[in-house]
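Researcher: Please translate sequence to structure tokens.
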Amino acid sequence: MSVLERLRPYPDMCVMISAGAAGIGRALADAYVEAGATVHVCDVSETALSAFRERHPGCLATQANVADPAQIEAVFQAHAERFGRLDVLINNAGIAGPTGGIDTMDDEAWSQTVEINLTAQYRFAHRAVPLLKNSSKAHIICMSSVAGRLGYAWRTPYAATKWAIIGLMKSLASELGPDDIRVNAILPGIVEGPRMDGVIRARAEQIGLSFKKMREEYLQKISLKRMVTAEDVAAMALFLCSPAARNITGQAISVDGNVEYL
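Model: Translation complete:
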């Protein structure tokens, strides 16, 4: 196999993506479908799922709130009935969480951020690993963030979960390596789109700046002076599911234009 051939994703992959109907998840799902994979997404938004089903009628789309263990179990039951196998799990679900000082943080908002961003990744991995052990191209991708390698004032719940995901990933890479299951994390940077606009707006209000000025300050933090796209993140995920990446595991890989600080 030539180097160029090794860059092509593995054929006939069966992929599960949490929060896969919108945002980065949608870009991931679209990319894997284009690569010929069988894709199952879950998402909390029925509107986003309906649009996904229209785009990809051959894929499976299940409504689920990843904060609810029973709904995660239902996702895996639907997956087993439809496919009976799994090659790639992409733990993509996450929320921005609250913006504010630690002394004003609300316990419920903190707990919700931990439940959705971190505990759901454990629950999906817990259910997926028995299936992945039967795959010859098994891979778990844990979606973290540039906030998983940098401190992030006023966003402590989000940053804490994203750092914890790196620890989860590295531990699973060691644990599952003997079963030939690779585990990596992708750390998206400042991703263009409505969700990032909301984060910038909340931060601007927190410190008393205009949205435009706050956005300019975010761009100044990036060496390349531009945001990344969801498709940039999807391209990295596809590479990690190619023969060229067969010895890449336990890595936290940034796709961020080199964010220097937050």
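Researcher: Any highlights?
Model: Residues 22 and 60 are 15 Å apart (CA to CA).
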